[in-house]
Structure formats: C-alpha cells, structure tokens
Specification:
- This is NUDIX pyrophosphatase.
- The protein has three helices and seven strands.
- The protein has one domain (about 1-140): Alpha-Beta Complex (Nucleoside Triphosphate Pyrophosphohydrolase), CATH 3.90.79.10.
- By secondary structure, the protein is of the alpha+beta class.
C-alpha cells in the first residue's frame, strides 16, 4: 500500500572532471524531473529511494545521501490519498542524491533520460523542489550553478 510520502532522487556520475546529473522526461506530462516516487508501507525513506531508482532506471547506486531539501505536496495528486487520515492536505517529499555508474534503461514512466551538466539540468527542471535539491547537491559537490 502507498505510504504518505514521496521521494526524489538525483542520480549523478563523474565523467572526467565533469559531474553529470540524470533527468527523466515523464510520459504522463512531458516534464523533465529527477527520479521520484512514493514510499510503500513499512519502507524506510532510503529503502523507498533505492527501490524507485531501481524500478525507474535499473540503476543501483552508492554514496546515498539524504539531502536537507524537502517540500510538501498536495496529497490529492496520489492514488490512495483518501486513506491518509493523518495527512489532511499535503505529504512530504524527501530528497536524496546517489552516485551511479552506467546508463539507465527506460521504464514505462519515462519517454527519455538525459545526462546533463548542472546548469542544463537546472534549466530543464520544471519543479522548484527539484531545482532546490539539485542546487543543494551542487553545493555539496562544490559545483557552482553560476
């Protein structure tokens, strides 16, 4: 059963001196975003993030880090929200970063993936929560967006 929280995952890899970030274009709304999904009942935040990364990209990562960035999202966006009686209006979205190697495989949720530099990724992202999490990750990795 769907748990009342969302996870956002920003996969990255180092290519030479450059760090690249993985974004996916969603099939349902044609929006570029980081990997995201809902928690399942009894999963920890990190377990949910690892499962979503694997389900959506077939990637497994290392150096998982929960970021400070988080936001609240309208619960009505998600299936099963009527059962979340302790969350009247919104649910939390927790952000993670993860270092990966290799390339993702498309899942039914995405029409394409793209490895981007920090500035390109920031410009492609539509949602503020994704942009803020990317900014925080860049700060942690000492990459300046400009």
């Amino acid at each position: 059963m769907r748990a009342p929280f969302q996870v956002l995952i920003i996969p990255y890899k180092h290519e030479g001196v450059e760090t690249r970030f993985l974004l996916g274009r969603r099939n349902d709304n044609d929006v570029w975003q980081a990997i995201s999904g809902g928690g399942e009942e009894r999963e920890s935040l990190l377990e949910s993030a690892k499962r979503e990364l694997l389900e959506e990209t077939s990637l497994v990562g290392t150096n998982w880090q929960q970021l400070d960035s988080m936001c609240m999202l309208p619960k009505v966006y998600y299936t099963g929200h009527k059962h979340w009686i302790n969350h009247r209006y919104v649910i939390p979205e927790y952000s993670f970063s993860v270092q990966v190697t290799g390339d993702p495989k498309l899942s039914p949720e995405h029409s394409e993936f793209r490895w981007c530099g920090a500035l390109e990724a920031s410009n492609l992202l539509d949602y503020d929560s994704n942009k803020i999490a990317l900014w925080e990750l860049c700060e942690r990795l000492e990459i300046h967006l400009g």
